[in-house]
Task: structure prediction
Amino acid sequence: MTLTYAPPIVLALTFALGAAAQAPASQDPPPVPSVQVVPPSAAVSAIAVFTTAEAHAIRDYYAEHPDRVADPPPIGVAESLTRGARVSERLNARPVPAELAEKLADRPGHEVLVAGSVVLLVEKESREIRDLLRDALPPAR
Result:
C-alpha cells in the first residue's frame, strides 16, 4: 500500500463535505414573520387627503358664497397649520357648511373644518391635520 501526500486544504475540504453530507435532512422551517395589524383609523387616515375635484368644489363654493368666509385665525396660528400638526384650540376652526360637506367624500373618523382662508381635513379622535388647502377661500372683507 502506497501513501501519497495530500495538501492540507484537500483534507479540510474532504472532511467538510463529508460532514455536510451527514447533516440531518429535515430542519425546522424558517420562522414566519409576524403580521402587522393596522388599526382601522390608521388605514383610513392613510387615504385622507383632498382630491383635485374636492379642491375645485371647495374653491368654487366659496367663490359663489363669499359671505361665508371666516375671520382669519390669530397671528402665528395660521403658520403652524401643517400636515401632521394638531388643531389648536386657539384656531377657532368651524365645520364647513353642510351644503359644501355634501359635495365632499365621506371619510369616517374625519371632519372638514375652515379657519380663515384655510380648509382642513382633520382626524376627529386625535385632532391631527391630515390635509389642508391654503388660500382656498377669497380674502375676508
In short: The chain has four helices and four strands.
